[in-house]
Records
---
Amino acid sequence: MAEEVAHRLRAGGIAFIEAGTGTGKSLGYLIPLGAHLLDDDPEGRAVVATYTLPLQDQLLRHDVALAEKALGRALPVALAKGWGNYLCLLRLDHLARGQHDWLEGLAEEQPPRPAIDELIRWSEGAGDQGRAHAGTWSELPPGRWETVWALVAAEPDRCPRRRCPLYEACFYHAARRRMLESRLVLANQHLLLADLALRREADSGEAAVLPAFSYLVVDEAHHLEDVAVSHLGVELSSEAVLARLRRLTRGRSRLLGEPARAALAVLERLFYALRRGLERAAPGMATGMARTPGSVQHPARLTPGMAETLCGPALLGEAKEALEEVASQAEQLAQRMAGQEGDGEEGARSHAAADLVAVARWARRAARDLEAVTSAQAEGYVFWMEAASRAPGLVLRAAPLDVGPVLAAELFGAVRAAVLTSATLADGPAGFLPLRRRLGLASAGDAPAGDGPSSSPASPAPAPWAGEAQAEWDEDGALLRAVVGVSGAPPVVRREEALTECVIPSPFDFRSQALVAVPSDFPAPDRPGFVERLAELSLALAVELGGRLLVLFTSHRMMAETWKEMEALPAAGSLRVLVQGGASRTALLDAFREGRGEGMVLMGADSFWEGVDLPGPTLSCVVLARLPFPVPDHPLVRARAERISEQGGDPFWEECVPRAVTRFRQGFGRLIRTRQDRGAVVVADPRLLTRSYRHRFLDLLPRSSLIAGPAHRIVREVVEWTRPSLPSS
């Protein structure tokens, strides 16, 4: 991997590298990247962008040091975080003086003085600006800081920059100076794309976070398209808009009270009308969607003219005009304050003017976003509404259907070389071509969509595993044993003038370490009785294995139903069940890790499919509740499918299956983390045995052993398989 990265850094262009678990991906790019920056391009700078913050932290605290040891030299490195992660000393000073709410009244009561004093003491002790995390949220002492932090976090629209009297002591600007002095900047993909989106706005150049860079490494790159969609689209929350308008009506200055009250009244009527229209237009569309507190549900697609039909064109026009009036009044007040002279309070006026400019920019953006989503007319975008779980909350969204042109021109086109890597990038026989198309990096000579080996099969196989190599039935004919997945072959490398494609298999022996088990007597996940059978199977496995079980779901609703069914079973009392939502993700993983998984079952969805690292006997079995296909009724999924159909393709095979396979591989990857690990992945979805797409899932696994049979036999085989690795053995 290091050789391929080094070649692409010298030659320029793009490298796609799929590197299996245990490859050492971070060292595979950090060592050649450091050597190139130190030896070949002394003026160059590189950004490494991860998807998860834990990986970003691992790079900073551990992997960069290993790379420096290998290089024999120090590599100047800095950590990049967004504005809101840093304490603003000026806002803290105003909070301590009781001057923070002069324009916007508090949503909550004034924080208790002891909390403010503790924050001041912490800020004074965090003054070593040479530290990567100095003055950031992640270093706060234990406690509930959310309310206070919202009042003191740095914000680009509020920042007076060099005019600030505390500029030299500012944590954010110290971090930015460290980035400008560094050769390597560690960021995350959300910050990378937020930076790109900010630079695209003419008035937001100063708000950009990342310095100029020549080289880019994107780790966990299978997420990049979705991250780009979220940052290049629009999200307008009714709760956020109304909350800020209410704060403006309660501000002590009363400067914006009148226009804010007028806007609040109009926007409340608008969002109420849209919510009622949504409830009429999309009853019951939340099937399969998350239903946890604070989640959104009932996604309904917006088409041109639909919003006006729901609430009336006059009300939409009033809402936009009211927001524009707030912006206009704030701008006029800011100009008047900036023009005042001679009273010896320049600093206070500067801060007040900055607050007013921030409100003006926010109101103008809100009006612009409201117009964009409700008109639903922009070419190449899909528009929809989501009802928040607490009425009358509403979220308006717009998302680009194709982020490739922007990424190709403004991200990859702006660097000399880029490396995209992950354990799950390639798409079977189609290789990296589907991903390259989505990222705008397919060339004119590539096969058109729908051609080649990635097309759907003509018909499903006549019977499960008919003619499958190395497949055999047990003597009683109840249990099928097979070998699935790719072999541990040498890396596959394809080089062109400006493109490298490389697949490096995991060095682990999955055939002797990992068992894939599928209960053949389960109903399909959407059929009656599935949740009950899943709860029984999960509980039986946990009891026999002494806990050490992770169950992954594709919906919060199914997770809650399975948990409820498990609790009703007699054996559940011997286990501790940790469920996503009962505590933070970090707290749940820490509890499972500290208890070494003994007597524990961890249930999760969404983010638990990846980034969970529980090596050794702590985790012996992973249950995948169902194959992770995207929700078909979601407006973005449906719009993508329509576009593929218009282009003559098959949406299921070109869009749904590849995304599900990537997610499936990520879930499988939670089990084997070291050469010593041994365990089983139980896929409770019988479609993995019978549907024509089964090969697309199984062929992309590492070479592994598979069994299929009745659930009671699955439990017995899993226990026998994992027994050698259990602490009691």
---
Amino acid sequence: MRKILFILLFISSSIIIAQNDEWHISTNDNSDYTGIAIANGRIGMLSSSKPLKIKHIVLNNVYDVDPNLKVSQVLHGMNFGNLDMFIDGEKIAEENITNWQQTMDMKDAALTTSFDYKDKATVSCTVYALRNLQYTGYIDIRVEALKEVDVKVTGKILTPKEYQTPKNTFQILKDVETTMPILQSVAKSPFGKHLVSTSGTFIWHHINSSREHQRPELKHQIISEYENTLSFDYNIKKNQNLNFAWTGAQCTTKNFSDPKSESERMVIFNLLNSKDVLLAGHKALWDELWQGDIIIEGDLQSQQDVRLALYHLYAFGRGDSDLSIAPMGLSLQTPYNGHIFWDTELWMFPPLLLLNQDIARSLVNYRSDRLEPAKKRAINYGYKGAMFPWESDDTGEEATPPFALTGPFEHHITADIGIAFWNYYRVTQNKKWLSEKGYPLMKEVADFWVSRVTANNNGSYSINNVVGANEFAPNVNDNAFTNGAAITALQFATKAANEIGIAPNPEWQLVSENINILKFEDGTSKEHENYNGEIIKQADVNLLSFPLNIVADKETIVKDLKYYEPKLSKEGPAMGKSIFSILYARQGDVDNAYRLFKESYVPNQQAPFGALSEVATSNFSYFATGAGGMLQSVLFGFGGLEFTDKGIVQKDPILPKQWKSLTIKGIGTDNKIYRIDR
């Protein structure tokens, strides 16, 4: 699967340690390469195996609308993450380097690539998406001369060729004695919705001890409308080093009225701050994030896998943004166009709510900020309350492609959101938030379900013509998870009303108590009205047991597990096995729980770092939804944690025999630590 380096690599006259521990994943094999994201919740930079290159940059919540597809797409921004380096006139490329090595430092959110160029130089390059300067990236480079060499370095801004009317400039701004060289590209997004501006410059840490303040002359060249470059030449004496950085800032009219000027200011800020100051701020914020952590002793592979999953959720979110997280986070535009699904509320939100309430608050606020479009959508489809879109973008309107039945019919997402809101209150006990944002949304969600159900002659209620979590069965009646989620959302709305002293609508309780949960004759829960044992895309019925706790007796839980596990499609996403893992752990069956924990993500890992794809047969990554599922297996399964109206509690944790201990720290608002030992 992945090839990890466990030894010391002797590179020319230097010794570079390929770290491979609980915080670092190293590789020296790039023959089968799927990148991982270096991200800060606002921009994402996808790594590349090519020396001094970034594959692409993704801009969170910046959408452009394709008039042909008639849906919005999150923007791939201008790529400021690529540099060219020439040594003695020859361009560095995959073909002429040796001892290539990459190390992902999850603790500091940094990716370091190092290599040798012949017997002349050793180069290392570390990429950061600065957490403290969220619209900027920082690439720190060191060239160690093993012989005297002439070096040429070119920093670039590459504008995607789909962009409109690109304009490329270079200017040296001056304030008194301070000079500030700024490379800049400005263009309209591919379909004209936004103006995008990217600025970049070189930063000199020091040249060497004898030429501390000497800066090379910069040369500007516009290669094409889509490639704007800035270069310098420098001679490095034998056994001396060249240390510099390339930094870029990218702003759009989504976030700034004047993105051109703001991108310049951000680059100037980086230029005129020291490397130590910039990186100290970045690392301090990541230290805060890692106050919420999962520590596995005795199984390094599981520790790395879990940390990489948690790293990506942290990297894709921000506590100060009121933004959500798309299934692929800030790694890839496709599939799903960077839209927001139930993936957030059901799969990513619960582990983040346990470990980082700031990011969790952004995720719920993303929905409350889009309540009004959801209310309008309910009216448009003949319902009351709020009807949230299956795929959401910055507008809060439905962004699903029209051909997909999920757009008009996958309604459980409206319940999923209401459930997430009550769980946020359960953990934070923030009554002000509940009064101002939580309950107003939960009320509209409950009103939607009252208007959505159909009354039957026997006093029960059905929810007809839906696409459930099992999307292999469209347009069915009484889907198990849809009905269970609606029941739960109605119950939680009643609790929320009582919590803030408002009389709940009595219809919420009446309907919740009488929505159908169908059964086969032997008592097994039935996936929908006409279900007859077909293959399913992912867990649906079993979600009634976790997280909904509607099917709560052990006999039925196990019966449902045994019936539906063999029905899971090999082509479906892996989250279903996460649910099975949790449920087996809660029944005390640790062997099956661990087996399914591993099956929920290992087949989907991509070399060399273990980036998760949605299904085992694809390499679209990083699949943040799968990360959320596997983390839930650890937290809610082995860790025994649970959301209750009394807060977070622990019930019957269980430890796989492969682990010596499990420590979960930073849980809840009081940062509790839970430890399970063998």
